[in-house]
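Researcher: Next sequence.
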Amino acid sequence: MKKYKLFLLGSILTISTLSLYSFKQSDKYFEIAKNLDIFATLFKEVNTYYVDEVNPNKFMKDGIDAMLENLDPYTNYIPEDEIEDYRTHMTGQYGGIGAVIGNRNDHAMILMPYEGFPAHKSGLMIGDEIILVDGIETKGKNTGDISKLLKGQAGTTVKVTIKRYGVENNFDVVLTREKIKIENVPYYGMINEKTGYIKLSEFTNNASKDVKNALTELKTKGAKSVIFDLRDNPGGLLNEAINISNIFIQKDKSIVSTKGKTAEWNKVYYATSSPVDIDIPLVMLTSSRSASASEIVSGVIQDYDRGVIVGQRSYGKGLVQATHPLSYNSQLKITIAKYYTPSGRCIQAIDYTHRNEDGSAGKIPDSLRTPFKTKNGRTVYDGGGITPDITVEKKIAAPIIGSLYGKNLIFDYATLYVSSHKTILPAKEYVFTDADYNAYLKWLAGKEYDYKTKVEGTLDELEKISKTEKYYDGIKDQIESLRKQVSHNKENDLTTFKEEIKEMLEEEIISRYYLQKGIIEASFDDDEDIKAALKVLDNPQEYSKILSGK
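Model: Next structure:
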């Protein structure tokens, strides 16, 4: 009898639970249907009665974007007219001329032709102004509109009219569009006789193959250690992150796990291939803009104590996205899982909203983060990106440098310089001399590049507030005294920050002759992250000490 009562009670509880679940589910679907009906009715009423004309596509997209904004920054609606741009971002491929286009002084300029593609092969240069595209004026158009004019099916032609500094008349260039594949590894080479360097800028198709080939070739050139640069790499394909990790990690080791609402996304991914090298000393460079797949790779290397991480704390994006088709050829990119490194940590920033100016995770107290252990017992934390083993403070540019760059007084001088110098020394050897700098100062004289320092801005704000709150008369003299003390002098700043300005000019000029690869090579002797990486690689005892956790 007692067993029967227990069975009856259990059955009642089960039925009650199922009924409650069914009620909750039906209640949830009713709320969804009700709110969709309200939304549709509202849309109809606004479209019918609002005093001004409403663009239905824009109105709806704004509403969808605002709705998805409540979830996370990476769940996005992609309308049909943006699908091609999204595919380009994910695959690194498009049909076009192979050049980065930008705006300088309200003119459409070529900022970087990709080596070996139509723009480069036809002789187009950084600083060339695009006046017309197939007879259509570029004046007044934004960069996106001009890029769309230049892109098209591979094999088709496009005529551009170019204005070049130092050339009297404008000229036409007919380009045959090609399938453009943005390189995952824009550069690899030897920094010195024993240290190789690999720059990975994308995680699109074949990224792991590109890294593997680069590492193999560097070893044949005598590389005894490697610097792997993931700075500013926004991430990309999950499988490429797994395969790149596998290059340095033993087969069958776990690389990353994902956990989502649905069981199909609860997976553990392992290294499935034989590694290329599990012993070569390795330093990975990260920055506050290294995100997603970059954080998977750097997290794996750190968790297995396979290499030393140098630079700045990474972005803090531990979310996995997938795309789902919607009606009328639109798509939804939606976050479907979080990923976890081998130690068990999720590097997703705890707070989506409060971030630094560059979008990276703000400082999070260790008390709000969970500690985990690496293979050798080192403590690492979740909840805010990958923290480097050696942190290098990010250099903050002086206001005068921001002004010279923003007013194109670095870019324009490089264009002038190229017009009178047919060749320069190789990127690693070229130096912008003191004599060159004096020539730059003469050219700069009389040009407008005034600027305000943060201290001056703060004093202006203090004056404004003190006047509003009726304190100004009492502190006027102190404010003016401070203003005189901190008032900048442009001529003095040109001397004080001479080396930094020369460095910018040097890299801009080198880019005109040696493109992106030249910029990278030119930065080797000034790059603080690379200096820190070389320092630890040149000290095997320190390298081992960091990884041992002692």
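Model: Confidence is low (pLDDT under 50) at residues 1-21. The chain has four domains: 93-181, 187-394, 399-451+489-532, 454-486.
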